[in-house]
Structure formats: structure tokens, C-alpha cells
Task: inverse folding
């Protein structure tokens, strides 16, 4: 897991995974043994725990996030890995292609790049007069670069000027958002990454301070006070991963199991944040929301 042991979202996802395994007749402590490590997206921890798990010679390893897969593939090229929450498995070098992964890993993608245009459309819906948008992205992550390119392509059609803000550290984030906020008619798009998750509270606080509408890629941001999010249901990825784990344990090769795109998305709106920003959310958007936080 690329979270800490006490992370509430991680605990929910583990519970979803184990419940799904039980539906296939696999019960921890009965006919299967599950060993769990929490790497928290800290490189040293991810590498340490990857080596520990590989040394156990398991039948299959479930890996959450790109950092976890990277750490595992450094120590094994043969043990089967099923991943969840990876934005660009081909770009990261985890698989040869989506249909025929070819190596020792397969799993479930976090995004298709066509989704990124939806974030900009949502920003335009909640702020019709928007002229500028800053995209918070991890420039060191191939998916962050690709997402920015896809958003920029959509921006041309919508007549919105796009600029990037890198999220390598807190100081860079604060400088970037503060400078962007000096001009009017702007909003934020916050693309998912490990660095974004690490600095989530800071990003949400800065958006509130400068009264910048912000669209996020995952639900945990709106649950923490962000305005609106649209993205895949992460719990569903763990549910679907259980089916691949079961198939591998029955003898199927991960190299023959295609990487799958998300098929369940959720739109979440935080009305309390909208009120603080003096924004009126369009009724049609509210009606389309999967969850409204009041």
C-alpha cells in the first residue's frame, strides 16, 4: 500500500479488496495468507517493504500506486504483480502495452487521458467567466506531463489560457499559486500524484485563501475541503483487482491479462466550499453529482 497504516482511505480499500476475495472463496488465515506493508510513498520504505514481500515468495503481489510497482520491479522480474492506481503503466515502463502487458505486471489504470478535458469543462461550468487556469502537476511524473498536454489541447477549444504549477515541494506550490492568484478570472486544476496527495491540505488551503475555484481528480480532495472532484472510484479498482489476484492464484499469467481502464467514475461537490467561494453551482451539475457534501 502506498499509504500509511492509519490512513482511513487505505483501510477502506483493503477491506473492499478482502471482501471481494472472499466472494471468490479466498479468506485470509483460512486458505490464503495476506501480508501487508505500508510504504506511504516514501522511496526508502517502498524499497524496504518491496524486498521483504518478494523474499516471502508470494503467489501474487497487489501494488497500490506507481512508486510501489517501481520498487517491486527493481527486486523481481518474475513474481506476478497486480497494480491499482497507476496513471500511465506504459509510460512508466511497467508493461509493454495495455492489451498484452508482456512482463510480470498488469492491473488497473487510474486514468485515460481523455478524462483530463472533463476537468477543464467542469471548471468552465462552475466559473463561466474563467479566462485562465493553472494546472498543478508533477513534472517528474510522465503522467503529469501527459495530463498537462491533454488539458492544454482542451483549453484551446474553450478559450482558456493554461499555465503549469509544479508540485515538487510546499514552497514551490505556495509560490506558484500565490503568483497565479494576482490576476483575476482564474481557477485551478489539481492533477493526482503522490506529491499532490502529500501536499493536499496546503493546496486546498491556498485555493480557499485566494478564492480560487479548483477541480480535483479524486474524491479525497473534496472530502478534505476541495470544491469539486471528478475521477475514478478507487475502491472499485481494489474490488476489480481481487478478480485478477484470484485468476493469477489459479494459474493465469499476468502477461496475458490486459491492463484495464477505470469503468466507474464519481463526481463529488462540496457545497460548503462553494458557499465560501461565493459560487452558485449550476442545478444540472448538482443533479448529476454522485455525492454532495454539505
Result:
Amino acid at each position: 500500500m502506498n499509504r500509511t497504516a492509519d490512513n482511513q482511505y487505505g483501510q477502506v480499500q483493503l477491506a473492499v479488496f478482502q471482501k471481494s476475495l472472499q466472494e471468490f472463496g479466498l479468506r485470509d488465515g483460512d486458505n490464503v495468507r495476506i501480508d501487508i506493508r505500508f510504504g506511504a510513498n516514501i522511496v526508502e520504505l517502498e524499497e524496504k517493504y518491496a524486498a521483504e514481500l518478494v523474499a516471502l515468495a508470494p503467489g501474487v503481489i497487489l501494488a497500490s500506486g506507481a512508486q510501489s510497482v517501481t520498487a517491486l520491479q527493481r527486486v523481481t522480474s518474475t513474481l506476478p504483480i497486480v497494480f491499482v492506481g497507476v496513471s500511465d503503466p506504459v509510460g512508466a515502463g511497467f508493461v509493454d502495452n495495455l492489451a498484452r502487458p508482456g512482463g510480470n505486471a498488469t492491473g488497473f489504470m487510474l486514468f485515460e487521458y481523455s478524462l483530463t478535458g472533463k476537468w477543464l469543462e467542469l471548471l468552465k461550468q462552475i466559473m463561466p467567466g474563467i479566462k485562465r487556469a493553472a494546472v498543478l502537476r508533477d513534472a517528474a511524473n510522465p503522467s503529469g506531463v501527459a495530463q498537462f498536454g491533454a488539458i492544454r489541447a482542451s483549453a484551446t477549444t474553450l478559450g482558456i489560457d493554461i499555465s503549469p504549477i509544479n508540485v515538487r515541494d510546499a514552497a514551490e506550490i505556495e509560490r506558484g499559486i500565490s503568483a497565479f492568484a494576482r490576476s483575476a478570472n482564474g481557477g485551478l486544476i489539481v492533477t493526482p500524484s503522490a506529491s499532490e496527495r502529500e501536499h493536499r491540505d496546503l493546496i486546498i488551503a491556498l485555493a480557499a485563501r485566494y478564492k480560487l475555484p479548483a477541480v480535483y481528480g479524486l474524491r479525497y480532495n473534496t472530502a478534505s475541503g476541495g470544491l469539486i472532484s471528478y475521477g475514478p472510484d478507487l475502491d472499485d479498482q481494489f474490488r476489480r483487482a481481487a478478480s485478477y489476484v484470484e485468476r493469477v492464484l489459479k494459474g493465469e499469467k499476468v502477461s496475458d491479462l490486459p491492463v484495464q481502464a477505470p469503468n466507474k467514475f464519481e463526481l463529488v461537490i462540496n457545497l460548503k466550499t462553494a458557499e465560501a467561494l461565493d459560487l452558485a453551482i449550476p442545478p444540472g451539475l448538482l443533479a448529476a453529482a454522485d455525492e454532495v457534501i454539505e
